[in-house]
Each structure stands twice: as structure tokens, then as C-alpha cells.
Amino acid sequence: MLKDIDLSIQKGEFVSILGPSGCGKSTLLSMIAGLVPATSGDIIVDGKKVTKPGKDRGMVFQQAALFPWMNVTENVMFPLRKEMSRKEGQERAHHFLKMVQLSNYPSHYPHELSGGMQQRVSIARSLAMDPAVLLMDEPFGALDEQTRSRLHGQLEEIWIDTKKTIVFVTHSISESIKLSDRILVMGTRPGTILTDITVDIPRPREQHRQEIATLEEQIMGLLKTEIDKVIDEEQAYEAGH
Amino acid sequence: MKPAIKRIIFFAALIVFWELGSRFELWHETILPSPVSVYDSLVAGFADMTLVYDLIASFRRLLIGLIAAVIIGTGVGILLARSKTADETLGTLVLALQSVPSIVWLPLAMMWFGLGEGSIIFVVILGGTFVMILNVRTGIKNVDPLFIKAARTMGSNGLDLFIKVIIPASVPYFVTGARLAWAFAWRALMAGELLSSGPGLGYTLRYASDFGNMSLVIGVMIIIGVVGAIVDLLIFQRIEKNVLKRWGLET
Q: Which of A54, A68, A125 sits opposite B155 (nearest CB)?
């Protein structure tokens, strides 16, 4: 599915992996997380080879994946329970819930929260492990436009505050431009990195509409070729049958 | 109108119709005794404590049988969910046995455990166990893979993953399994008691039938139905509803 991926990400960098559905961008992220083994080649995070999932790589999925039988605080404490006392864990959970502006909901259960709030808890839960890298797999894909836009702002702030390395998978061009230092545009069949774009638009980026629009068009052009390729292949396949 | 009020009106109408039918002799008293005589025999049964002892005896068997069924069912269910070989062999047997009404085991049970408590409890255990096994097995197999993935990225695996994530995630299935186990066990208990010695609700029902005491027969039937409905509505459905809500499975 993936082929010839050679990629290095700097500490503290916000990198987006952008591509059409089916290009393997989520698979690549799962490989970094250690959830999916790579058939060949190595993934090194912080000098260590990835063989299995670990707390040095936090993962935020498209669905918040909170445990419904635990309240907000207990969810955030889940990855901490073996390394610190309950009290320390609670304090830490509180700190990160505050960071995602949910410290008012420590005892709520996931089903009592909106989708956006659940996703923020999920982000707090990953950050609480203090991972070297935060992997995000279309984390805002299931949310409505306003919520997504608000969470973009929050995520940017958290990233600036914590200086975490973030690898962010998305199919939204504007989302990737809004958030990242670098955009890796992926092509499909086989999934491979087409272009590595450095985004040097100064933050906050809302004020630089012209630059955003130009970059958006440039990436759109790149992706259009890829999407056309998929459609052509599909039509050729249909014609052959 | 509230459902409770609708229910009261419905049951009142039913009893009035039944009583009027008896008064105007639409049917003979020996075929279907009137509500008043059913009531009288129930009062008499509770006054001389026979029905109280019956209830205690029946509940004792039920409780022992149900607890055993839930424990065995959980254990075997976990085994079937975790071991493919067990599922392909023992699982098939469980599926086959589940379709056998547990009361047909009574003749064998009597050979093994004699005519008393042992065989009835055995039949009750069988009544509840299979449905519990199948629900636990399904619950563990159907845990959202996303929960497992998320837990693994947070450093959980092996036994910790199983106890902290997989088991709690399948709690809704455990509860449904226990509710169905109770329903099957209750039916098995009544069938078992009908065919064995007393005390017990089923035994009293047969005893009344042997003496042509149809009002007591109906009285015991009503007790069986009321107990069944109360336990199901007030205990199991409530727990199930709360769990489904908490687990986000009900909107």
C-alpha cells in the first residue's frame, strides 16, 4: 500500500500528511504509532526503533475513543495509572483538562459531552502521557465546521505552549495550511509522498488570506492529478469488464 | 395519559370482565374460577404460610442456580471468545445444547442427583448457563477495535488490556446475558418444580391441580407471572437501561 517513504520530522515540528482517501496516510500514521507493522524499513522515534505501540507516541483518532465507563478525569488518568499515585494522576489530569478548557467537567461521562468536547478530552488524555510526538488521525473530521475551527485555534495554542511534535493526518487542504509548518502531500497507488511543502506563512495565519489562497490552489492542482489518476484507473477497470 | 394509569385501567377492566363472566356463568367455576375465589385461595395460602415457604424455597433454588449459571457462563464465555479452538469445538456444543429446553435434562439429573434439590438446581443452572455463555462470548468479541487500539497506544496490553478495557467494554452484553439467564432459569425452575417434590411454587401448583383446586392453580400462576415481571422490569431492565445509556449505546 505504501512505497518508498523516506521522511524525517524535526522535534517540535507540526507536520500534516495530506492526501486523497485511500492513499495510506492513516496507515502511515498507524505504523508510526506501532499499531500496524511495516513490511520493510524502519521507523525511528526519538532514537528508538518502533516495534510496538508505546507511550512516547500519543494517538488521537477521528473518534474520541474515550472509555464510556470512565468519567473525564478517569479517562485522562488511564495512561498514567501505573506510573504515579492516584493523587498525582488527578492533578496531572486536571492540568491537561485545563489546557483543553474542560476543567469544569471532571466528573462528566463521555456520553454527556458533545463530539468536540470528547475530542478535547482525547487530546488531553494523549498529552497527559507526555509523548515525544502526538499523532492525530483526522481528529476533527467528524465535527461540524464551527467546532472544528475553534479546535484548530486551541490545538495551535497547545502546540505553541507544549512545543510537542505533531503529525497530523487530514484530507482537508485548508486545515493543513492553517495548522502546519510542513505539508507532506501524498499520492495514491502506491501511496507515496509527492511533495514536501514548507509553509512559511506567519502565525496567526487568518490575516494572510492571499498567501493561504495561493498555496491552497497549488496543492489543489497537485491533488487533482492524483484524483484524476484514480478515476482513470477505475474507469479503465470498469471498461475492461 | 401516563402508562401506569393505562395499565391500571386495563387490568381492572380485565378483572371486572373475568368476574362478571363467572357471575353470569358464561363458564363453569371448575373450568375457570372467578377472581374472587382466586383471591380467597391466595389469601388462605399466604395465611397458612404455605405460599410463603414455597416462595422462599423457589427463590433459594433460583438464586443458587442463577449465580452458578452467571459464573459458569462468564468463564466459558470468556474461554470461547479468547480461544479459537475452544470456540470451534466447545462453542458448537454450547450452541447445540442451547436449543435444548433445559427441563429435558431432568430425567438424567434425577439419576445423578436424586429426586430432590440437586436435580432442580441442576436444571436451573443449565437453563441460565448457555444464554450467558453466548452473550459473554459475543460481548467480548464485539468490543470496538478502536478502544483496543486507543488502549494499546496508551501502553496497555495483555492481561491489563483484557481486564481494564475489554471486560468493561463488554459489560452491556454481560447485563443482557444475566437478564436472559434469569428469564430462562425462572422458566426452568417452574418446570423442574412441577415434576419434583416440594416445597416450591411449581410443586404447589401441581399439588393443587391433583386436588382439582383450580383457583389455587391460577393463584400460583399469577404469582409466577408477577414475580417474573417484577424482577425483569424493576431490576434487570433498569440496570440494562442505565448501562446502555452510560456506555453510549442508547440515544
A: A54
Cell numbers at B213, concatenated: 383446586
Q: How far apart are CA A237 and CA B234, in angstroms?
A: 59
Q: pLDDT at residue A119 above 90? A: yes
Give B7-63 pLDDT, tens digit per residue: 999 999 999 999 999 989 888 888 899 999 999 999 999 999 999 999 999 999 999
Same domain, A148 and A207: yes
Contact indicator for A140, A162 with CB cutoff of 8 Å: no
A141 and A233 inside one domain:
yes
Same domain, A121 and A157: no
Q: Are residue A28 and residue A122 in the same domain, yes or no? A: no
Question: Domain locations in chain B?
Answer: 48-246
Which domain does A24 fall in, by range? 1-56+137-241
Together in a domain, A156 and A191: yes
- Measure Cα distances from B73 to B129, B142, B191 in Å: 5, 17, 21
CATH for A187: 3.40.50.300
| Region A70-94 average pLDDT | 93
Q: Calculate Rg over the CA atoms of chain B.
A: 22
Label residue A85 exposed, middle or buried (CB < 10 Å: 0-12, 13-18, 19+): exposed
A78 and A151 share one domain: no
pLDDT in tens, B112-165: 998 888 999 999 999 999 999 999 999 999 999 999 999 999 999 999 999 999
Q: Which residues from chain B sit within 8 angstroms of residue A129, using beta carbons?
A: 154-155
Structural domain total, chain A: 2
Q: Under an 8 A CB cutoff, do B154 and A33 touch?
A: no
- CB contacts < 8 A (A, B): 61
Minimal Cβ distance to B246: which of A34, A55, A69? A69
pLDDT at B69: 97
Q: How confident is the model at residue B1 (pLDDT cuts 50, 70, 90)?
A: confident
Which residue of chain B comes nearest to A31, CA vs CA? B153
pLDDT 10s digits, A5-26: 778 888 889 999 998 877 888 8
Say whether A125 and B247 touch across the interface (CB within 8 A).
no
Residues of B in contact with A34 (CB under 8 A): 152-153
Q: Which residues of A touch B169 (CB under 8 A)?
A: 67, 69
The alpha-carbon gap from B45 to the nearest alpha carbon of chain A, in Å, equals: 46
Same domain (yes/no): A161, A217: yes
ipTM of the complex: 0.88
Report the CATH fold assignment for B48-246: MetI-like fold (1.10.3720)
A58: chain B residues, CB-CB within 8 Å: 153-154
